[in-house]
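Hey, quick one: can you model this chain's 3D structure?
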Amino acid sequence: MRSIALSQKEIDNLNKEVSKKNLKKVPVLNTYELLRVKDRDIIFVVYKTGKMVFQESMGISNFLNSILVRQDNIVIGTDEAGKGEWYGPLVVAAVALTPEEALALRKMGIGDSKRLSSFRIYEIGNILKTSKIEKEVSILSPEPYNIMYEEFKKEGKNLNHILQEMHTQVIYDLLKNLNLQEVTVVIDQFDSSHTVTESGVLREFKANIIQKIGGESEPSVAAASILAKFIFEEEVNQLNHIYDLDLKNVAPEDIPKDRLSSVAKLHFKNVEKAYS
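Sure thing. Here's the predicted structure for all 276 residues.
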């Protein structure tokens, strides 16, 4: 089963299409459900939250094509992974989706990486990494991360300033590669006091930059979220292999001190305690 978040416009389109095709409705099972349809290979449930859960088939694919609202142009989205983990790198990804790519990914059930299973992150993340979809990724491994963090700290800056630089860089690189006259960039807002729009390097592009909370509602941001998480997991696995560790299931104090700076973010309280 796959799921997709529908806008009110798309729910309206869905109801019209159900009536137009005279699809067979079945009784809802609880008060949270808005509609249930089971008609040959078109099987789905729509919840009052706007979430649609469906069974994959050719029929449902065509049905979704008829109800989903397409974006007008290419939209770039950015997001990060590794900010809240004491181990591993900090990863920022930017993904540019055409209207067709955004539609295809929505039909796959793309969403916020924090709400997807590890299997789905791997499945979609691998597609994003290996496909021709335009993207840029910045990886700040633990050792350079720790050096950069200390340098920024001396200047009165913090982690959000690092994120600001990384988001700006991947956006800049992607805009340069795309060479578009106009483009919308959506950033999942990581801190209200630091905005990527303040960066002078992006002024050479005609980019409409939007920072908003819950940016994963945009397919390009959701894609960036999944790609960043996928790359983060790949990098953690590589660190585990190099240093013979299981970073997800080990405490900082159980790691030799001479290895901590290579696998961990030293400013985290639990790491700081083990490192001192």
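One thing worth noting: The longest strand covers residues 90-97.
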